[in-house]
Structure formats: structure tokens, C-alpha cells
Amino acid sequence: MGGYARFVWPSISFALAVLIWNVWSARRHHARALTRAARAVAMARSEES
Fold it and tell me: Where are the chain's structural domains?
């Protein structure tokens, strides 16, 4: 890498860590949104009765 490996590898590692965090965060927020939607549907059904 022409002497730049000490700059390139940490940059690649950081970018990979950010991408992994982004996927994890999106999945977590999606799961919470599904839970909230299911609760809202359940509440709406219980109010109809």
C-alpha cells in the first residue's frame, strides 16, 4: 500500500463498523415499530368490543 497501510486499514475498519452499526440500528428500530403497531392494533380491537 505504499506506506499508507496504517491509514487505510483503520479507515476500512471504521467504515465497516459504521455499516454494521447502521444495519443493527435499523433492524432494532424496525422491530420496535412492529411492536408498537401490533400494540396499536390490539388496542383498537379491544376498544371496539
Answer: 1-49
pLDDT, tens digit only, all 49 positions of the chain: 789 999 999 999 999 999 999 999 999 999 999 999 999 999 999 988 6
User: Considering only CA atoms, which of 16, 18, 36 is closest in space to residue 26?
Assistant: 18
Number of H helices, E strands in the chain: 1, 0
CA neighbor of 35 nearest in space, from 27, 24, 23: 27
Classify the C-alpha dihedral 26-32-36-42 as positive or negative. positive
